[in-house]
Specification:
There is one protein chain. By secondary structure, the protein is an all-alpha fold. The chain has a single domain, classed as Orthogonal Bundle (Globin-like). It contains nine helices and no strands. Bound molecules: protoporphyrin IX containing FE. Protoporphyrin IX containing FE binds next to α4, α5, α6 and α7.
Length: 155
């Protein structure tokens, strides 16, 4: 009798394994969730052309930052900038398409810390300030980017 109960418990636990695996592998978040209500913010960034100019400044600032340069020095900077333009454009309700990878995949194995993440946000703020983007518009974009730290920061 006891043996049968043990076998039943074991079978139940085994049956739960696939459920656990499915739960553990939660799908990555949408890397470029569209916010049509932020279309006016995109205008304050100077539209898509403004984002292209912003990303040139942003990348140059990061490459001059000893904390961040090692991450980007040997990456395909043109591709990263292009994908960032697309990503920000979609988030800000523009008629663009994001063609890059999701945030988990594009940052996997880079061992990015919370400190690195904050440093990158500071450099983005510097770039936005230099381009005269209004403070409120900056924060509306940053509010959409901030939750992505969950998929980008590894340690
Ligand atoms: C909210 C913050 C961030 C956003 C929205 C973001 C967005 C992106 C995007 C769109 C790409 C291009 C993906 C692709 O080409 O498929 C990318 C690549 C990359 N990101 Fe980030 N990123 C963020 C934070 C960071 C941080 C904190 C670091 C490091 C300190 C970092 C380092 C990199 C590197 C090195 C690549 C290129 C990877 C490669 O060449 O394979 N990112 N990121």
């Amino acid at each position: 009798m006891l043996k049968h109960i043990r076998m039943a418990v074991a079978a139940t636990l085994l049956a739960l394994v696939p459920v656990g695996l499915v739960l553990a592998q939660t799908a990555p978040a949408d890397p470029a969730p569209a916010h049509p209500e932020l279309r006016g913010v995109l205008d304050q960034f100077g539209g898509e052309a403004g984002l292209v100019a912003l990303m040139d400044d942003f990348m140059a600032i990061m490459l001059a930052n000893p904390e961040l340069a090692p991450f980007f020095e040997f990456s395909d900077q043109a591709m990263v900038k292009r994908h960032l333009v697309e990503q920000f454009c979609v988030i800000l309700g523009g008629g663009c398409t994001y063609t890059g990878r999701d945030m988990v995949e594009s940052h996997r194995g880079l061992a990015i810390t919370r400190g690195n993440f904050n440093a990158l946000v500071e450099d983005l703020q510097t770039a936005m300030n230099r381009r005269g983007i209004p403070f409120r518009a900056q924060n509306q974009l940053l509010a959409k980017l901030a939750p992505m730290h969950r998929e980008i920061v590894e340690r």
